[in-house]
């Protein structure tokens, strides 16, 4: 019943990053999904660049201007790790209180290279050409101009044997690819 209620109700979820206190000339990068679904765990990634002291971060999730989830914390200088963002849902009909409660893992990263992998579509069929873009940036948000080795993995973590193509063109899947989950990845830079 809860699932059908949320399916019938179309909510527009907006993620607000309220405040991030950081030193001047410091920066941050936040990657979040454009759509949050009720009851589904989503990932939010926060990267803090060149932090010289601890950083206070506040995250707020709002629906129609009303805050439904709020979290804050202090990120120590040089910390790499994960934190949890809890999300609650509320329905104002005849019932009171929270009708769902969920949490997600938030990745906090203060240094290193950020790598973004983009595919041209979410699902590929046999003989379709696989196109990917790989972008990497340094902590000061400058592009990395080094060679990157990209690959596709099948279920179980093995390199995909059915790809054809060179370094600039990942290629197409053969006519009978192995079924399963595929992940794009990167090698050392």
Automatic annotation (TrEMBL):
Keywords, comma-separated and alphabetical: Signal
Nucleotide-binding among keywords: no
Record bears the keyword rRNA processing: no
Signal peptide: 1-22
UniProt-annotated stretches for the region Disordered: 161-189
Domain of life: Eukaryota
Protein name: Complement C3/4/5 macroglobulin domain-containing protein
Source organism per UniProt: Oncorhynchus mykiss
